[in-house]
Specification:
By secondary structure, this protein is mainly α. It is built from seven helices and four strands, in the order αβααββαααβα.
Length: about 200
C-alpha cells in the first residue's frame, strides 16, 4: 500500500510536500497492527511484550527495508506510544527518525488511569468508562498538578535522551494529556490544553 501511495504522490509531483512516512501508527499496538499476531483491535498488549521483541522488531526492519528499496528518498519511521520511558532499549538503526506519541496517561504505564479507575481499552466497548474519565480526570489532575506534569516531563526527557543516544531526530505527531476527553457538553478543555 505504501509503495503504490508514494509512487502516486511522486507521479503527481507532490513528493516535496511529504516530510516522512509513518508505516504503522503506534507500532505494534493491536488496534493498528492486529495483523502482526492475529490480535483483534482492542486486545491488550500482553504483559512483558515489547516492540523490540524479535517478532515485531524483525517485521519492522523488513517493512522499512522493502519500502526503502522502492523509495530511498523518503524518510521512514514507525510511531510508538507504549513504554516511552523504556524507549532507549529499542534498536532503531533501520528508522530515519523516532516518532513517539507522548501521553500523560497511557494504558501501558501505571499511573493516572489506574488512579482514576479508568480502562482505556474497556472504553471501546463500555460507555461507562467515558463517564469515569469525565467525572474523575480533571479533579485528579488538579489535586496534584505538579506530580502529573512531572510524569509528562520525565517522558519528554526520556524521548530526548533516546533521540540523542540513537542519533536520530525526534518528531511527534501526538502529544496528549490523555485520550478520549471528548466534546460532550460541559467538559472543560482548559486543563487538557495546560498539560499539552
Amino acid at each position: 500500500v505504501w509503495s503504490s501511495t508514494l509512487t502516486t504522490i511522486t507521479d503527481a509531483r507532490l513528493r516535496d510536500s511529504l516530510w516522512f512516512v509513518d508505516l504503522c501508527n503506534e507500532w505494534p499496538t493491536p488496534v493498528w497492527a492486529s495483523f502482526l499476531h492475529g490480535w483483534r483491535a482492542g486486545d491488550p498488549i500482553p504483559a512483558g511484550y515489547r516492540r523490540w521483541d524479535p517478532v515485531p522488531l524483525e517485521w519492522s526492519r523488513r517493512a522499512v527495508a522493502a519500502l526503502r528499496a522502492a523509495h530511498p528518498e523518503v524518510p521512514l519511521t514507525m510511531s510508538v506510544s507504549d513504554d516511552i520511558s523504556l524507549s532507549a532499549l529499542e534498536p532503531v538503526e533501520h528508522l530515519d527518525l523516532v516518532a513517539p506519541h507522548i501521553w500523560l496517561a497511557h494504558p501501558s504505564e501505571p499511573g493516572f488511569y489506574d488512579e482514576i479507575g479508568y480502562d482505556l481499552l474497556g472504553s471501546l466497548h463500555d460507555a461507562r468508562e467515558w463517564n469515569i474519565l469525565a467525572e474523575r480526570a480533571e479533579a485528579t489532575y488538579r489535586a496534584d498538578e505538579e506530580r502529573w506534569r512531572s510524569v509528562l516531563t520525565a517522558k519528554i526527557h526520556a524521548v530526548a535522551e533516546w533521540s540523542r543516544t540513537a542519533g536520530k531526530p525526534v518528531v511527534t505527531t501526538e502529544g496528549w494529556a490523555l485520550v478520549n476527553w471528548d466534546d460532550r457538553t460541559g467538559l472543560d478543555w482548559g486543563w487538557i490544553k495546560e498539560v499539552c
